[in-house]
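During the reporting period the student researcher (J.K.) took over the structure-prediction task from the postdoctoral fellow and processed the backlog of single-chain submissions. One of the processed entries is reproduced below for the supervisory committee.
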Amino acid sequence: MIIMEYLSPDIFTDLYSYLQCQPSDQHLLKKKAMDIIELLHNGDFVHGDLHPSNIMVSLSETEDKVLKLINFDWSGKTYSTK
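J.K. obtained the following structure tokens:
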């Protein structure tokens, strides 16, 4: 079982919806998303279902944009031959 933090729709929206309204933030959010993915991969984990609807963006105007990955149903440990 995977238990995830509740993300209120008043505070978070998915990346796809966010970029429809704020396309100018695309480069910043891409960098943040790549950092998250790199962190997972460095720990030999994969998300397994990565797409913009599974990346949530904070709507707060007072803080730097926070990204959170959701839906880890297909995630798991990789078995690389490093």
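The committee noted the following: Residues 26-42 form the longest helix (17 residues).
J.K. will present the remaining backlog at the next meeting.
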